[in-house]
Amino acid sequence: MAENYRKPTLDKDLDKLATMEEATGLINRGFVTPGLALVFIVLCAIIAGVFVTGQPGAVTIIAAAMIGAYMALNIGANDVANNVGPAVGSQAMTLGMALAIAAVFESAGALIAGGDVVDTISKGIIDPAAVSDPSIFVAAMMAALVAAAMWIHLATFIGAPVSTTHSIVGGVMGAGIAAAGVDAVSWSTMGSIAASWVISPFMGGIIAALCLAFIKAAIIYKDDKIAAARRWVPVLIAIMASAFAAYLSIKGLKTLVEISLGQAALIGLATGILSWIIARPVIARQARGLENRNQSLRKLFGLPLICSAALLSFAHGANDVANAVGPLAAIVHTAEYGDVASNVTIPLWVMAVGAAGISLGLILFGPKLIRMVGNQITKLNPMRAYCVALSAAVTVILASWLGLPVSSTHIAVGAVFGVGFFREWYTENSARRADYVARHQINPPSRTTANGKIAEQRRRKLVRRAHFLQIIAAWVVTVPAAAVLSGVLFVVLRAVLI
C-alpha cells in the first residue's frame, strides 16, 4: 500500500515547476542571440580602443566601431540569405552546412578581396566638398550607418530580403541632404540606382525562367530522363562554372588584380571547358542505376548548388563588406587626420570587424531569411535552385557588360520569383507538358472531378502573393526610408556632437 501512496498536491506542484522551468528556458533562449550580438559589439569597441587609444578622436572611432559592427551583423542577417537560401530550400544542403559554408566564404571574401580602397561617399552619391567640415562629415557617416543598419534590422524582423547597398545609399543621401541640401546629391547617380530596382529583379527573373524552361524541355519532359541528364547536366555545370569564374573575376577579385571584361570572359570559357571535361564522367557515374523519374534528377544537381553557394558567399563578402566598413573607415580617417578624403585605406582591424560581423550575423539571425528565400516564396527543388544560382552570376556579368547598376539581392530574389511565376504559366499553358502528362497518365482526372480539379489548379498559386507584395514594398521604400531616418539622426547627432 505504501508503494502506491501518492500525494496529488505535491505531484501537481512538481508538474507546475517543470512547466515553469521549460517556459523559462524557451524565454531565455530568445535572449541568447541578441546577447551574443551585444557581446560582439562591445568586443569590437574594445578592439577599436586598443588600436586608437591616445589618438585624436578615439572616442568617436570607438563609437563608430560599435555602429559598424551593428551594421555588419545586420548585413549577415539579411543579405547572405540570398546566397544559400535556394540551396537550403531545395534540400541540397542542410541549414547548418549552409551557415558554416557561408560564414567561412563570406569571411574569406571580405578579408582576401574586400578591397584596400573604398569610395567613402558611397559611389559619388554626395559631393565631398559639400561636407568638407570634418565634424559634419563624421556626423553624416554615423547617421548613414545607423539608419541603414536600423532599416535592415527592421526588414529582417518582418522577413523581407532588402539590398544593403541601397540601404547605405539611402542613408548617405539622407544625411547629405540634411547636412548640405539637395544640391549636394548627385541625382544622376540616384537615378541609376533607382533604375536598378527594376532592372535587377527583372533580369534575374527572366534568366532564371529561361534556364528552367530549357531544363524542362531538354531533361524533365523527355521519355528517357537519365539519358538526357547525362548529356545536358555536364553542360549546365560547365555553364555555371564558366559564369561563376567570370563573376568572381569581375566582382570578387577585382581588388586583387585588375581584370577586363574580355579577360574575365576568357577565364570563364576556359573554366567552363575544363568543368565539362571533369563533369562528364562524374555525372555518368552518378546517373548509373538511377530510376527514370524527376526525383532521381535532383541528386545530380546537389554538388553544383553547394559550390555555387560557396562562390556567391565569397563574392558577396568581397563586395558588400564595404557597406559596413566603408563609412566606418571614413570616420576613422577623418577622426584621426582631421580632413575629409574621397578615398581612404581601410585598416585591417576595421575589415576584420566587417568580416566577423557579417559571419556572426548570418549564424545568429540568418536562418529566418534563409527559410524565406529558400522555401516560403515558392517551392524550390535542386533544378530550380540551380536556375536561381546561375541567374545570379549571369545577370551580374551581363549588367557589367551593359554598364547597368544591379543589386545582387534583387537579382537572387527576382530569380526566385521568376522560377515561381514561370512554373505557374508553364503548368497551365505548356503543350509539351500536357502531352507528356497525357502519354504517361500522370494524375489523370476523372470525368466527375475534371472541372473541379481544373478550378483548383487555377486557384493554386505557386508564388505566395503575400510574400511577393511584402518584398516588393520593402524594396521600393528602402532608399527613401533609410534617407528620412538618416536625415533625422544627423540632425540629432549634429546637435550632440557639434
From TrEMBL:
Cell compartment(s), UniProt: Membrane
A GO cellular-component term linked to this record: membrane
One of the entry's Gene Ontology molecular-function terms is: phosphate transmembrane transporter activity
Q: Give the UniProt record's GO annotations in the biological process aspect.
A: phosphate ion transmembrane transport
User: Membrane topology type, per the record?
Assistant: Multi-pass membrane protein
Which UniProt keywords are given for this protein, alphabetically ordered? Membrane, Phosphate transport, Transmembrane, Transmembrane helix, Transport
Q: Which family does it belong to?
A: Belongs to the inorganic phosphate transporter (PiT) (TC 2.A.20) family.
Protein name per the record: Phosphate transporter
Organism the protein comes from: Hoeflea olei
